[in-house]
Design goal:
This protein has 72 residues and is mainly α. Strands 1-2 form a two-stranded antiparallel sheet.
Length: 72
């Protein structure tokens, strides 16, 4: 399994990282790092995470929470 980020997702991560950095310097960087770590973990062991209901035909998409950050 591999992963890729859509342009819209990259922009969302950048926007949220900027907002987190306004709250606390460096927090946005930790958020962006956590997103990347999660993507790698999901790639290494995808069965630890649940399948997305109704994915596009022929695709298997999984999701999970980022822990400290309230994102799925």
């Amino acid at each position: 399994m591999n992963y890729r980020f859509l342009i819209a997702a990259i922009l969302d991560v950048q926007d949220y990282a900027a907002q987190y950095n306004l709250r606390q310097p460096g927090l946005g960087d930790r958020f962006a790092d956590r997103v990347e770590e999660f993507a790698v973990a999901l790639t290494v062991n995808p069965r630890l995470y649940r399948r997305v209901s109704r994915p596009p035909a022929g695709r298997e998409i999984r999701e999970g929470y980022l822990g400290r950050f309230p994102f799925l």
